[in-house]
Structure prediction request, 83 residues.
Amino acid sequence: MDLGELRFIGVTHHRSPHGDSRVGFAFLTEVGQDLEPVNREPEKCACLAWADPAHLPEKTMPYTSEVIRLHLSGEPYSLHGWR
Prediction:
């Protein structure tokens, strides 16, 4: 994949209920239907799967859900969990 094929879609500054925080940047690209996602951090992530953005799996990480929400709503940035 060429980096020119990536399109920035949003960033969220996420704070978990436990108080730790992370910044999540999201990019969009087009891939062939025959490609499967590869879990490069199996010690941190149970699985990766293609999903309908409007119907994410129940166990989707909150900051991942938030950057997808940003993309669907056309918003570029959010503070998530800081209130």
Observations:
- Helices lie at 62-73.
- The two ends are 38 Å apart (CA to CA).
- The CA atoms of residues 35 and 50 lie 10 Å apart.
- The beta strands are 7-15, 21-28, 77-80.
